[in-house]
Amino acid sequence: MACGIMVIGCGNTWASDDAIGIRVVEFLKKSYDIPSDVTIVEAGCPGIDLLFIWEDVPAVILVDAVTGFGMPGTIHTFDADHLLPREKMPYSSHSINVIDAIELGKKFRQLPCLLTIVGIEIKSEESFCLKLSPEVEEALPAACETIFREIEKIRCASSLTADTPL
Amino acid sequence: MSNRRIHVDYIARAEGDGAFDIVIDNEGVLKKASWQVWEPPRFFEAFMVGRKAEEVPELVQRICGICPHSHHISALRAVERAMDVTVSEQTVLLRELLHYSDWIMSHALHVYYLAAPDFLGYESVIAMTENPDLLPIVKEALKLKRLGNDMIVCLSGQEIQNKTSVIGGFTSLPTLSDLNKMKEQLKKMKDFAYSTVGLANQLASQVPYKDLSRKCEHVALSDPDKYAINDGRFVSTEGLDIGDWEYPQWIMESHIPGCNAKHSVIKGRDSFLTGPLARVNVNFNKLSKDAGKAAGEVGFNPPSFNPFMSIVARAIELVHAIDTSTELIDAIGKPVEEEPKFSYKAGESYAITEAPRGICCHGGKIDKYGVVQKWDIVAPTARNIYNLEKDFREFIPKLLHLSDEELTLKCEVMIRNYDPCQSCATHSLKIRLRREGN
Fold first, then answer.
1. Is B296 on the interface with A (CB under 8 A)?
2. Distance (Å) from the C-alpha of residue A80 to the closest C-alpha of chain B?
3. Number of folded domains that form chain B
4. What is the CATH number of the domain that holds B131?
C-alpha cells in the first residue's frame, strides 16, 4: 500500500472559476512548504479515472468547485458519507463527475480510507476565460489553510488507526 | 390528437451543448426534427494558422479529452503528407497501437457506462450497480477501460495529451518489458471483451425498436490488408472509393440556422453514417478472427442499417482492438531508438483516421518555411449530426403512441446511442419535451 496523503485538485483551467481546484493546488505548491508525506495532483476533469488516481492511497483531500451553497468564495468540507447532490459539482466528460466517481468507488470498495472534499463556491464558468472571479480568487489562502487543517485531522485520525499507514 | 413538440434540452451521458427540437402536428405528422448545437465554435482551425507545422499535431490534441490521439494522428499524417515526410514501420505500428488503446478506453466506457444503463432501463451506471448481478460486470468493465488508459500512458507518457509522438516518429519509446506487460494485460481482458459482444447483443435485442432500420450510406477508412484505423482509402457501402486526402472534394458542409455545427453530405448524395457500425459494415472481413467469430455467434449480419446495433459493433471492435494490439506488440518486438526527422517543404494535404466515434479529418496548407497557411478540422460527431436527424424522422413516427416521458427517453437513447462527443465541440446536450396544443 502506498503511504501518504494525496491532495487532488480538479477543474477546467479554460472555464474561469471551474478551475478553482487546480488553482488552489497551484497556490499551495507556490506559497507553502509541502510536507514530505503529501503528494499534490492536478487532475483536470478526471471523471471515473479518479478511482485510478487514488488507487492504494490511504488518505485523500479532493479540491473542486461547488455551486448553490452560498456566496462565491465560501469554502465547504464534506466526507464520503455526506456527499453533495451530484448536480452541485461540475460535470465531466460524458457526465461522470466527482460525485459519481465517489459513489462508484463505494460500490467497488475502491475509496481511500479517509476522503475529504474541499468545495469552493464558484461564481462563473465562462468558457475560454482563464481568470478567476475576484471573490473566488480571494478564497485561495483560506482554501489552503482548510487543506492544512484537514491534513492535521487525517494525521490525528490515522494515529488512532494502527492499520492505516500514513 | 393535439400538436406535440419535443424539445430535447438536456441529456446526461453525452458530450456537448445542444438541443433537439421535434414538432409533430395534430395529424401525427412529424414537421420538424433538428439538432441545434449551441456550443460556440472554438476556432481551432484559425489557431493553427501562422503556427509551425510541427506544432499542429500537438495543439489539436487539446480539442478533445476522449479521443485526443485521433486528432493528433490525423494531423500528423496530414502534415507529413504535405511535407513528404516518411516514417519507419516501427512508427506506423506504434501509432496504430496508440490509437487502438484509445478505442479500448473509449469503447469500454461507452458500452458499459454510457449505453448499457439505457438499454437496461437504469438511470445511470450507479443505479446499475444496485443490482448485485451487474455490479461485478461494471467493475470488470472499469478494468477494461483502465487497460486502455494504461496502454496510452505507456506509449505516450501521460493519459490524455501525449508527450512522445511527433512529426517523423517518437521521441521516447516503451521498453520491450513494458510491451510484454501490456500484452499480458490484454490477454487477461480478452475473455471479458469477448463476452461483451454477447451482452451488447442481448441489450440491443431488448429494445422495442430493434427492427428500426434506415438504409443510408455508411463510410469508413478501408485497407485491403487490414482493418483500417490510421490509414486507408475512404470507402462507403454505396460504392464510394477515394483517397482519404480527397475528402474536401467529396464531403460538403453547410451551415444550418440555429446550429453551430455544420451538416455534412457526400457530394451529389446525402447524409452518411460514420463510426463503429459503419466500420464493421464496410470492413467486416478484416476483423480479427475472434472478433468475426464473436459477431457470428450473435448473428451479426453485415451490413446492418439499424443504428441501435452500434453497441454490438463497438463490442465487436473491442475484441478486434485487443487481438490487433497483441499482434502489433509482437510485430514491434524490441523497440529501436530512431531520431524523428523532417524538413520543411511547401505542400497541401489532408488525412483521415478512425476515431472511436468515426472519421476524424484534418488537413491544410503549409508554406516552404513550415508555417501553416490554412487548416481544416472536422470531428466525427459533426459528420453524424445530419444523419441522426434523418434517423429521428424515421424513428419518431413509429413511437407516437408513447407518453411524452417515454418518447423523450427514447429520443435520449437514440442520441446517446450515437455517442455524440461534441467536446470536439462541447459540454452537455439538453432535451426538452413539449406538446403543442396542450
1. no
2. 15
3. 1
4. 1.10.645.10
Taking CB atoms and an 8 Å limit, are B65 and A93 in contact across chains?
Answer: yes
The per-residue pLDDT for range B268-325, each reduced to its tens digit, is 999 999 999 999 999 999 999 999 999 999 999 999 999 889 999 999 999 999 999 9
- Cβ within 8 Å, pair B159-A49: yes
**Rounded distance between C-alpha atoms, residue B46 and residue B34, angstroms:** 28
pLDDT in tens, B92-103: 999 999 999 999
Give the nearest partner residue to B66 out of A93, A103, A128, using CB atoms: A93
Given an 8 Å threshold on Cβ–Cβ distance, is B124 in contact with A100? yes
- In a domain, residue A1? The reply is no
- The grid coordinates listed for B417 are 446511442
Chain A partners within 8 Å of B138 (Cβ):
104, 107
- What is the pTM (predicted TM-score) of this model? 0.86
Cβ B37 vs Cβ B18: under 8 Å: yes
The grid coordinates of residue A23 equal 488553482
Q: Does residue B350 sit within a domain?
A: yes
Angle between helices B310-332 and B176-206 (to 10 degrees): 170
The whole domain housing B117 covers: 67-383
Within 8 A of B12 by CB-CB distance, chain A residues are 95
- A87: CATH: 3.40.50.1450
Residue B178 lies in a domain: yes
On whether residue A26 sits in a domain, the answer given is yes
Cβ atoms of B304 and B320 closer than 8 Å? no
Q: What's the structural domain count of chain A?
A: 1
Q: How far apart are CA B149 and CA B15, in angstroms?
A: 19
